[in-house]
Structures are given as C-alpha cells and as structure tokens.
Amino acid sequence: MDKKTEEFYVRLKEELANSTIWPSEYLYKFIMPSDIHSIAKVEAAFNNMGAVISTQQSKTGKFTSVSISVNMPNPQSVIDKYIEVSDIEGIISL
C-alpha cells in the first residue's frame, strides 16, 4: 500500500471513530466493470455477515455500482474490508 493510501485510511479511521458509535451500520459503495466474476468476489467478501447488497448496471452496461449495507463492529473492520476488496481489478471505492 502506498503512503497516500495509508494516510487516507488513517484519516478515515479517525473520522469513523469520532463520528459514529460502534458497532454500527456502514454503507460501502463501489463502482466496477460489469464483470460477473469481479462482482461475485465483492459479494463473497461480505458473505455470512448479514449484508444487504444491491447492484445497478450503468446505462451502457459497462459498469456496475455495488452498494453494501452491513453492521460493522469498529472502524478498523471497515478499513479491513476496503483493503480486502481493493485488489479486485477495476474496483473503485466511493
């Protein structure tokens, strides 16, 4: 992980810790190419967590937005999930 990304996660963790009472519901939003295997990898990362996952394909069908609402125990667990899915090709975290 590069220094800029690491600094982003440090700031995010501080903001989450200061703005939310944990455990809490967290909404992840991703944009990614409409590749069934990549979308399945994202869904698998949240499997057995009671997550509510919704997808919406773009008008052209090239991209898919993935929204995941899930109860997370603490800010570090939120960041761990972002890091876990970050190696999926073409994924952009919003």
Automatic annotation (TrEMBL):
Gene3D superfamilies: 3.30.70.260. It comes from Flavobacterium fragile. InterPro entries: YbeD-like_sf. This is DUF493 domain-containing protein. It comes from the Bacteria.
